[in-house]
Design brief:
This protein has 160 residues and is mostly beta strands. It has no helices and 14 strands. The protein has two domains: 80 residues, no CATH class; 77 residues, no CATH class. The two termini are 32 Å apart.
Amino acid sequence: MDYCLGDGDGSATMWSAPPDVDVNGDGVFDAVGLDFDGDGLVDDALADLDGDGVADQLVRDHAVSPAYFTDDGAGTWAVAVDRAPSLRWFGLDGAEHSGGPADVDADGQPDDLRDSDGDGVADQAFGAGRAFVDTDGDGRWDVTLRDGDGDGRADGADQR
């Protein structure tokens, strides 16, 4: 698994190591254990929760009281992720929201949010006759799926 750590001088270094920790409890190693917080214990882990071979979350104190963080792009792993049922999500106007009910398309009806990669940001939203998908993990909706005949299956798609 590849991961990036900041060097303290504004630069960052890429590392690679085989996963040796199971942070999601499925019996498969999905993280590299390390002492990220400097407490002398190897109880922190950089985890690949979406299975792409690159760390996408830091899990501090994973065995006792886990706290989740994502990388801010500089290898600092400083952006906290709330793993509670409440997700962060973006409206079609690009404004970020958290909590619910979510109304991605501002039609006055709540949309059902899903976080398929476990990063705390919704990447799928299902509403009345439409669904929105974030295909590249940047938090913005890339594809709109339409169900024109109401049978629950997409009849068309639009790139956003």
